[in-house]
Design brief:
The protein is mostly helical. Helix content is 72%, strand content 2%. Strands 1-2 form a two-stranded antiparallel sheet.
Length: 288
């Protein structure tokens, strides 16, 4: 009995530091944010009065919030399919045998080696309407930061550039885990490349693909840094997202109650979308 007791408590001691950090930096701030959303908050950050759902009612009636919600959902709708198609195509291209496979892998993995702020500044210079290389190379005259459609497209491009490195790494690792003998058998039996991918490779990498989709939705719902650096929510709030509005309300205006309310809505909306996705895909994902 004396030897069993230390063995039983040892796992709890090992996870205690990680659990303490999670509670301190994740769960506690989330709980405080949720509580703050039901109160009025002073500039010093102290709760004054409990007002129930008044913050939520005022927020949903705010045209600025309605625009932010619409922009966030539109960005998610454009970004996730585009990112999946590009990253999966890059992984398939690099997984094929050939002398350029290594160069392709380095090219697609390279964005992970560059910092976020540096990448966004490079993108901002590239798409500068006057001196940017994109307009000059393509012979265009697009005002990327003053046209609402062009600005949203620019954010999608920037988001793909930020996520392509990690997504490419995950997808190419999953493709390489598909047994090569099965691929050879499919080829011998006369299956085309598209048939091999659709009926063999895609089902076997479905769990990784689902993880990539989930993380992409999360990244799209929480996008803020590209908006801050590239468009600052413009033109005319056409690229203002929920997290960027939370930053404006909570940090620049000092309206901590409204910032907490937006943060809570972002969490609830993201959680609901991911829960629905996982429910719909539960029977279509193959776990090897």
């Amino acid at each position: 009995m004396k030897l069993r007791y230390p063995n039983r408590i040892k796992p709890y001691l090992l996870i205690a530091p990680a659990l303490f950090l999670a509670v301190l930096f994740s769960y506690r701030p989330f709980f405080l944010t949720l509580v703050n959303s039901f109160h009025t908050i002073s500039l010093a950050g102290k709760r004054i009065n409990f007002i129930g759902f008044d913050n939520y009612i005022r927020l949903f009636a705010n045209p600025s919030f309605q625009a932010s919600l619409s922009n966030t959902l539109r960005f998610t709708l454009f970004f996730v399919p585009t990112n999946i198609v590009i990253c999966l195509s890059a992984a398939l291209l690099s997984n094929r045998p050939g002398k350029l496979a290594t160069l392709n892998q380095i090219f697609f993995f390279l964005p992970m080696a560059v910092g976020l702020s540096s990448t966004m500044m490079i993108v901002k210079m590239m798409f500068n309407p006057s001196i940017g290389i994109i307009n000059q190379l393509l012979g265009l005259d697009i005002q990327w930061f003053n046209n609402r459609h062009a600005a949203m497209g620019l954010l999608v491009f920037a988001g793909v550039g930020l996520d392509i490195g990690l997504n490419f790494l995950l997808l190419i690792s999953a493709l390489r885990n598909v047994p090569s003998d099965l691929v050879e058998v499919a080829t011998i039996e006369g299956a085309s490349w598209s048939q091999t991918f659709r009926y063999l490779q895609a089902p076997m990498i479905s769990s990784t693909l689902l993880f990539v989709v989930v993380t992409n939705i999360k990244d799209a719902m929480l996008i803020s840094a590209p908006v801050m650096i590239l468009t600052e929510g413009g033109p005319y709030r056409s690229t203002q997202t929920l997290v960027y509005q939370m930053y404006l309300e909570g940090f620049r205006s000092g309206n901590y109650a409204m910032g907490s309310t937006i943060a809570t809505i972002v969490f609830a909306l993201t959680f609901a979308i991911l829960l629905l996705l996982l429910h719909l895909e539960r029977r279509r994902v193959y776990y090897q």
